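User: structure tokens for this one?
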Amino acid sequence: MVEHRSPKSVVGGSSPSWPASLLVMKDTGKKRNLNKAPSGKNAGFLNKIITFPRRAGEFLREVRAELKKVTWPTSKEVVGTTIVVLILVVFFSIYLYIWDVIFAWIIEGIRRSFGG
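Assistant:
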């Protein structure tokens, strides 16, 4: 039997990489392991609800870390690319208008020649 291991030592395999989180129920005082899936008919749904705050927090931490890696454009670059986009929009608007007038003229000529 071959054992498959991840090449990254920090990646968790079948054992969790994070310590188990506990939730203390206010009404009963009982502790509930958030990493353990509830059993029963709606186990998957309940597990998603219970672990949502932890997963949402982890997601937001990862988003913040990724946004720190982004190279944001300078205001000069933003103005320059905005001007280029506006010029191209005007150019292609005029270009498509000209072709629209040409095709309308051709179709109108065809329609008149067939008595329409």
